[in-house]
Automatic annotation (TrEMBL):
It comes from Sphingopyxis soli. It comes from the Bacteria. Signal peptide: none annotated. This is Fe2OG dioxygenase domain-containing protein. The keyword Nucleus does not apply. Residues 216-316 form the Fe2OG dioxygenase domain. The lineage of its organism: Bacteria, Pseudomonadati, Pseudomonadota, Alphaproteobacteria, Sphingomonadales. The keyword Glycoprotein applies. Its cofactor is L-ascorbate. PROSITE patterns: FE2OG_OXY (PS51471). It holds the Pfam family 2OG-FeII_Oxy_3.
Amino acid sequence: MVAPASLSVRARHLLEAGDTADAIELVSGAARRGDGEALNELGLWHVYGQPLQRDFARARLFFGHAGRAGYKPAMTTYAVFVALGAGGEPRWKEALGLLEAAAPDDVRAARQIELLRAMDIDGDGRPRSLPAEERLARSPIAARRSRLFSPAECAHVIDLAKPLLAPSVVVDSRTGRQSPNPVRTSFNAVLGPIQQDLVLHALNLRLAAATGTDVEAGEPLIVLRYEPGQQYREHHDCLPGEANQRVRTAIVYLNEDYQGGETSFPAAGLDIKGRTGDMLTFVNTRPDGQVDLASRHIGQAVTKGTKWICTRWIRRARFDPWGLRTPSPLIR
């Protein structure tokens, strides 16, 4: 016997059929009865602005109600909203308290608490100390911080990304369209505000501190997986015609048990194979804001094993992660 479709699936089918009013009534009615999945769905609708108006304050409210109604994934989302300040003031301690309250009955929350307690962070989730920076090149400006992430933190990032992996795409500089392309043959997953948890938020704060940038200038963390033969041919990370340009890139190597896969900068004669948790950062633009062609780099083909990295592209000014509806584009 086939199990009935979940409420969110039924609502999606109604929306795809153009029956918006029926979808809203289905979910709203269940929410009024205290259904956690329905309350969570209303929160998501208010985040993405479809089919309801975008309203982070209401989204935050619905995620909180959904979590308290027993819908466990919503409590993690609610904690992230509280920590980020989405729809209200940022309150790290309150977010941490929400996770601690959920941990006895929620394995995921308990795992987050375990990882967070192992971090050297202050009352706002920011790192108290960082590994020393090692300058690698002057053109492009490139540096490394060894073991910025712990092995357990790297494994956590991989676990978050695995269910979301999809073939990587590039953006055509002439048309602006995204498409698969032989220049980039990896798989990736974008860990935006809805996909992340409190551990990932703390890691984003650490990346901001390690690069001397504002955490709000960073795009969502993107995780990439390279299998044997997969690579990313020579490219730079800037976007065509973008005013709020990607001025810096931060890469964290999430594992080291593979062969090949070096990050190479032809202009600098630099080849890097990071160890688990190492961060590589480099500047993509010149002082005048134009693309620094010396920042062109290659993700060399993996020859054995599987390579995992995560990348955070950092913009010149604050970046709105909620507007990023597709995998983060890359220029070819």
